[in-house]
Design brief:
Elements: H1 8-13, E1 22-25, H2 30-41, E2 45-49, H3 62-74, E3 76-77, E4 82-89, E5 92-99, E6 108-109, E7 112-117, E8 120-123, H4 126-140, H5 158-170, H6 180-186, E9 190-191, E10 194-195, H7 197-202
Helix pairs in contact: 5-6
Length: 205
Amino acid sequence: MKMKYSNPILEYLLKDGENETLCLCASYSENVLKVACAMANGRGGNILLGVGDGSSIVGITEEKIKCAIANLSHQIVPTLPFTFNVLDEAGKKVLLVSVWMGSQKPYTALKDFYVQEGNVVRKANLNQVDALFEERAQMESSWERKPNRQTDISSLSKSVLERFRLKFVDAEKCTSAAGEEEICKLLNFIVDDSITNAGTVVLHE
């Protein structure tokens, strides 16, 4: 029997259950770092902490939420591109971690490279690591990564930058005093001291 959820985000994400782009975890463990690392090395994805077997909502404590966010922010190298939201379902908290496809591949967690093969996360072999470096080189030459000389920071949306700043402060990636340039750098939207084409699109009101 398909479960129903009052939270529309959970209803949408869990409609098809766990898959290659959605990992369900009852609580936080080091395995979450490996999964997030593999997602950044792949095409991105979502991790739901506080969801158990059969997509049942078991909830996660505030302490575990803080631990997960801190470790995702500091235990993956280069810095993991992710955002998070705390969702409520019937009085229980669920942490949604959204990992973006990384632009600085390959990423490491716990000093190892991880990749996904279907729903399975495993350490990358040498050929896979080489492929990740090649993918990074190709991405850096793509349109999204090219600097847009006609855009400067002053022309970007203040409200969008502020939303990202607050998320980075919550994730302990920067202080509340972080400026707009620092936020753009955290988002990997600065190349050769210019805003990238991707930054121009994403940081537009």
